[in-house]
Write a structure and sequence with these properties.
It contains nine helices and nine strands. The strands form two sheets. Strands 3-2-4-1-5-6-7 form a seven-stranded parallel β-sheet, sandwiched between helices. The longest helix is centred in the middle third of the chain and has 16 residues. It is globular.
């Protein structure tokens, strides 16, 4: 960040646990990048953090395996590794993970509506990343529509938000994505750019802000806005994407 620039302050963390489910049925939307960077940011705040990797591709687990032991610790749980643990062991591991103050959950792609009940039971907050392409926008619209109509979601009414991911600003496709996200009746809380820093961080098991000179002003502000939404009470109001009028966190 520049010498004269004041970074956005991170919010105070809520005293109760937060379990953040990062989900989208469309593969390649950057779920793992968002999951790992959010976990790294929480860990850097000296908060007991668990990263639950439900994706059989194991990308979050590979990231955690590459993480330098000198970095702030993150507890990793990979329930999909059925061959390495029996049901009792996996259940115990999940109890340990869900005892952490902040739990970030990476889900597999290609989820169907029939899967929603299982995942919603693990969540206090739901975060949906959407990419700036026509295919991703249409897929995201279908997924969000199915989720909002799901009986499990309607029973629990878990706070739900969307983020724009891997964007290049001042492009027509980003403007289309931004219009789409703003049109939804759910909070649009942050916009993350398509940066090589995320690729370098993923290779080393780091978060973006753990890299040398990694505190990009825009991305820092975006994550600060995201944390504001996660940490807010269900009735709080938060910025929409950082540039729009405030929107209520849905109950």
């Amino acid at each position: 960040m520049g010498v004269d620039e004041e970074p956005r302050k991170l919010p105070e963390l809520a005293p109760e646990q937060r379990r953040v489910l990062v989900v989208n049925a469309k593969g390649g939307c950057g779920k793992t990048t968002l999951t790992t960077n959010l976990a790294a940011l929480y860990a850097s705040l000296a908060v007991e953090t668990a990263l639950v990797d439900h994706d059989p591709q194991g990308s979050s687990s590979q990231w955690l395996k590459a993480r330098d032991p000198s970095r702030p610790p993150i507890q990793g749980i990979a329930p999909w590794k059925e061959s390495n643990a029996g049901h009792t062991t996996r259940t115990f591991q999940m109890r340990l993970a869900f005892s952490a103050r902040r739990v970030v959950i990476d889900t597999p792609a290609a989820l169907s509506a029939s899967d929603f009940g299982r995942w919603l039971g693990e969540a206090d907050r739901i975060l949906i990343p959407v990419l700036p392409s026509s295919i991703d926008i249409k897929a995201g619209a279908r997924f969000i529509g199915d989720l909002l109509l799901d009986r499990h979601y309607r029973q629990r009414s878990i706070p739900l938000a969307v983020v724009a991911n891997r964007v290049r600003r001042n492009t027509l496709v980003f403007q289309k994505l931004e219009r789409f996200l703003i049109s939804l009746r759910i909070p649009f809380v942050a916009t993350f750019r398509d940066l090589q820093g995320y690729v370098r961080a993923a290779e080393m098991g780091d978060g973006l802000f753990e890299l040398p000179r990694g505190k990009d002003r825009h991305e820092w502000d975006a994550f600060a806005r995201l944390l504001e939404w996660i940490e807010a009470p269900a009735v709080a109001r938060v910025p929409r994407g950082g540039s729009q009028p405030a929107a209520a966190v849905n109950r």
